[in-house]
Amino acid sequence: MLKTKRVASRLVICVENKGYAVSLEKRKIYIAIPDALAIKHGQICVMDATGEDYLYPKSCFLPTTPPASLRKAIRKAA
C-alpha cells in the first residue's frame, strides 16, 4: 500500500508553520499523500521525516514542481 501512496503522491513546500513550528519547517519540501476526506475539510496529508503521515491545514503549503531528477531524489530519500 505504501507503494501506491508514493506513486500517487505530489510534492508541496511549507510556506507557513504558525502553530506547527515543532512539526513543520518553512521552505522544506514534503510529500503530500492524496486524501479526499482531508481535502474536504481544508487539510492536506503530509509525510514527515519519520515516514509517518499527518494532517495539516492546506494553507500551510503550496504545490511545487522541481526538476525530475530532484523529484526522484526526494522520493527515494523518503
Report the helical percentage: 25-40%
Strand content: 25-35%
Q: What is the third-level CATH name, the topology?
A: SH3 type barrels
Q: Rough shape?
A: globular
Q: Could you tell me the number of beta strands?
A: 5
Write down the domain tally. 1
Largest sheet: 5 strands, antiparallel
Radius of gyration of CA atoms, rounded to a whole number? 12 Å
Q: How many helices does DSSP assign?
A: 3
CATH superfamily: SH3 Domains
Mean pLDDT: 85
- Going across the biggest sheet, name each strand in turn: 4-3-2-1-5
Unreliable stretches? 1-7
What is the end-to-end distance?
15 Å
Structure class: alpha+beta
Secondary-structure arrangement, i.e. CATH architecture: Roll
Element string (H = helix, E = strand): HEEHEEEH
Quick structural gist:
28% of the residues lie in helices and 29% in strands. The chain has three helices and five strands; from the N terminus they run αββαβββα.
Task: Give an overview of the whole structure.
There is one protein chain. This protein is α+β, with helices and mostly antiparallel strands. The chain has a single domain (2-67), classed as SH3 Domains (SH3 type barrels). The protein has helices at residues 2-8, 36-40, 68-77, and strands at 10-14, 29-33, 43-47, 53-57, 61-63. Strands 4-3-2-1-5 form a 5-stranded antiparallel sheet. A hairpin with a 5-residue loop joins strand 3 (43-47) and strand 4. The radius of gyration is 12 Å and the shape is globular.
